[in-house]
Amino acid sequence: MAQPIPFFREAGNGPGVVCLHANANTSSQWRGLMDCLAPRFRVLAPDLYGSGQSPDWPSREVISLNDEAALIEPVLASAGAPLTLVGHSYGAALALIVALANPGRVAALVLYEPTLFALLDAERAPPNEADGIRGAVAAASAALDQDLTDSAARHFIDYWMAPGSWAMTPESRKPAIAAAVGNVRRWAHALMNEPTPLAALRTLDIPVLLMLGKRSTVSAHGVARLLLGALPRVEPLAFDELGHMGPVTHPAQVNQAIAKFLERLRSG
Question: Helices (H) and strands (E) in the chain — how many of each?
Answer without folding.
Answer: 14, 7
